[in-house]
Write a sequence for this structure.
């Protein structure tokens, strides 16, 4: 099932540390890991996102960031992943500067590991510009992302991030956006047309608009599908409902990703196995997912 050239394009640093490490860091901080920390099927995206708060509380120093980046790379090697793009939001880790957060993670990366910097939905556009500037000067940082989800209370929306994403494109940085994660397909269209997204995280509602399917195919956009995560957040009721097989049949460049190995208790080989079984994927379809994971890389 696994291939030495397999790429993992969508894995969050703060959702993918080792369980033992989390318990050790929590113990050191004098806090108890909640029994209910891991994702459960149908829990809803807001509840899922709230689980990150506890983990972030114990990831507020450079040595911890370096350690978990190193361990995530080591775990990926065990999964036969030959190319790993880890993503994280540098401003959530309490270091004295964003540069310090980023450099702490870079210090832990192995040769096959790269970094994507996340803005969160609702964050100020100035922060995005700052992240783009920091990424530009660091070869191991290969892209930017918008993670989390929109809220009616947010002052800033996707429309406010166009300038920062255009700048990222000018500077040659990869662009991906969490879009259509159970939300309207128009979000996917906007991310591609106005934020120059080359990849879309999740994109589960893509089939709601055939014109957006055409747009995704015409632009060669890679969809980073995370079916187990979508099952947990209630975007789909079961893995068999995921539209990935139809996407493949339509020629959409989709690949499989884990999103959060700790919180979803998943690895990339297990995700391939689970999704192949649930959707009755053919060997050719599995190979196409592998190929798309290579073609969608932000770094060579
Ligand atoms: Zn994600």
């Amino acid at each position: 099932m696994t291939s030495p050239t397999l790429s993992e394009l969508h894995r969050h640093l703060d959702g993918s540390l080792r369980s033992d490490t989390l318990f050790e860091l929590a113990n050191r901080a004098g806090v108890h890991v909640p029994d209910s920390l891991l994702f459960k099927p149908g829990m809803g995206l807001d509840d899922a996102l709230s689980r990150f708060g506890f983990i972030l509380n114990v990831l507020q120093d450079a040595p911890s960031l370096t350690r978990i980046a190193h361990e995530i790379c080591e775990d990926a090697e065990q999964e036969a992943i030959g190319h790993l793009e880890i993503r994280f939001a540098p401003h959530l880790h309490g270091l004295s500067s964003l540069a310090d957060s980023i450099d702490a993670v870079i210090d832990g990366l192995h040769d096959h590991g790269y970094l994507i910097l996340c803005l969160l939905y609702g964050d100020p556009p100035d922060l995005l510009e700052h992240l783009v500037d920091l990424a530009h000067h660091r070869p191991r940082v290969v892209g930017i992302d918008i993670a989390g989800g929109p809220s009616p209370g947010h002052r800033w929306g996707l429309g406010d991030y166009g300038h920062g994403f255009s700048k990222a494109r000018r500077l040659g940085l990869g662009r991906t956006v969490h879009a259509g994660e159970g939300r309207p397909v128009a979000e996917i269209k906007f991310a591609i047309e106005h934020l120059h997204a080359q990849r879309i995280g999740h994109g589960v509602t893509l089939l709601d608009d055939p014109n957006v399917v055409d747009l995704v195919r015409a632009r060669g956009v890679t969809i980073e599908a995370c079916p187990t995560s979508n099952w947990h957040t209630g975007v789909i009721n079961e893995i068999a409902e995921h539209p990935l097989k139809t996407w493949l049949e339509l020629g959409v460049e989709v690949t499989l990703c884990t999103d959060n190995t700790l919180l979803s208790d998943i690895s990339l080989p297990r995700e391939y196995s689970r999704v192949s079984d649930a959707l009755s994927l053919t060997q050719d379809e599995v190979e196409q997912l592998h190929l798309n994971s290579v073609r969608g890389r932000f770094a060579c």
About this structure: The chain has 13 helices and eight strands. The longest helix spans residues 62-78. Residues 10, 12, 147, 178, 201, 259 surround zinc ion (CB under 6 Å). The CA atoms of residues 46 and 233 lie 8 Å apart.
